[in-house]
Inverse folding.
């Protein structure tokens, strides 16, 4: 049976075998604390690839050391990291999955304890391997250290670091690059008036607050060439009065499209610790649908999409072009193979050595 979820999707030079993708999910598992991937990354990502997904977007990967959320984050600020990621990308390709990577700078939410195996929360002290953070303005995220305001040279250095990391991503074999402009990290901090109090060319008007994002899009596009797809992940709302809004997101999406972005990964929240978020099945899908309708840009929907028919519904109602399945993928790395069975789709792929289990 034909199903939208199992139809191929083409973006630039990449065609994914279906429309179930894995969103970026930090593993906080670079135990060497130098941004290098570990055996865990190959096993974790490899298991998702053999589970039949169309594409996997690797976790938030820092473009500079001080851009890591935690000391255990991945990085792509040097060539050794590029060379260590290349065999992982190659394995994902061998298993039939396309590979993307989310390039990130955590801004004022950097230098925090990792989210597992650690009871402490908040900023890691300098004595324990933490570092001073930077942001558009010296405004702290609740519970974290106050960041230093970036000057214009600092902003330009961040843009250049995104471009350099994107170059390394292409050289490592990635099919797509995603710029992380969501979840209250550095680029989102510039977008939102709640975290951006600047009065120079990078603050104030929407155009000014969006400037660093658009410069990053343009710089990354110039590095990755015509075949590699460029996604941007936005939080479509701060869920807070006076904060970032869906309407502003739509305008910035139009500007990003003009500068070479191909697709928008639509999430929400993350910039305000106290925001009330009405989480529930598919709760962020309407934001992806609105952006797709208003701008004509392809969208990826994400957030509590964990059922095959639910995912199919998102696509056939024209709300998004692909669905991203996160936590359910960790619960069941074979989610895509299971979804195919549930939807009555016969696949001609799946891990060869497991053929007898899926016949
Ligand atoms: C363990 C974990 C790590 C995450 N890391 C990232 C990340 O690196 N970058 C990002 O944009 N979102 C990250 N997220 C958010 C996911 O990409 C996704 O948007 C979210 O989990 C909602 O989708 P789901 O309900 O299918 O899990 C993470 C989520 C989880 C559970």
């Amino acid at each position: 049976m034909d199903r939208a979820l199992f139809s191929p999707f083409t973006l630039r030079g990449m065609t994914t075998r279906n429309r179930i993708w894995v969103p970026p999910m930090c593993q906080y598992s670079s135990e060497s604390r130098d941004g290098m991937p570990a055996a865990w990354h190959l096993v974790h990502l490899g298991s998702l690839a053999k589970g039949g997904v169309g594409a996997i977007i690797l976790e938030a990967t820092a473009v500079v050391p001080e851009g890591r959320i935690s000391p255990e984050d991945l990085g792509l600020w040097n060539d050794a990291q590029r060379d260590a990621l290349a065999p992982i990308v190659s394995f994902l390709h061998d298993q039939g999955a396309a590979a993307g990577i989310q390039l990130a700078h955590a801004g004022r939410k950097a230098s925090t304890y990792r989210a597992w195996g650690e009871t402490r929360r908040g900023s890691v002290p300098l004595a324990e391997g933490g570092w001073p953070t930077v942001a558009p303005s010296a405004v702290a995220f609740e519970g974290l250290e106050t960041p230093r305001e970036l000057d214009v040279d600092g902003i330009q250095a961040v843009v250049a670091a995104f471009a350099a990391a994107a170059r390394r991503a292409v050289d490592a074999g990635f099919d797509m690059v995603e710029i992380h402009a969501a979840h209250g990290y550095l680029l989102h901090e510039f977008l939102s008036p709640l975290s951006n109090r600047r009065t120079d060319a990078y603050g104030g008007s929407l155009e000014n607050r969006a400037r660093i994002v658009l410069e990053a899009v343009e710089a990354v596009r110039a590095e990755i060439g015509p075949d590699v797809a460029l996604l941007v992940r936005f939080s479509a709302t701060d869920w807070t009065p006076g904060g970032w809004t869906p309407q502003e997101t739509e305008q910035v999406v139009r500007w990003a499209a003009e500068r070479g972005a191909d697709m928008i990964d639509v999430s929400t929240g993350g910039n305000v610790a106290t925001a009330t978020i009405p989480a529930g099945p598919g709760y962020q899908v309407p934001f992806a649908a609105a952006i797709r309708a208003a701008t004509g840009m392809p969208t990826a929907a994400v957030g509590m999409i964990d059922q095959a028919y639910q995912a199919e519904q998102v696509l056939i109602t024209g709300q998004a072009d692909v669905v991203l399945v996160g936590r359910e993928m960790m619960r069941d790395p074979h989610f895509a193979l299971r979804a195919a069975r549930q939807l009555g789709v016969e696949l001609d792929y799946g891990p060869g050595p497991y053929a007898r289990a899926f016949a």
Q: What stands out?
A: The first strand starts at residue 9 and ends at 11. The pocket of flavin mononucleotide is lined by residues 23-26, 59-60, 102, 180, 182-183, 233, 267, 302-305, 325-328 (CB under 6 Å). The chain has one domain: 4-358.
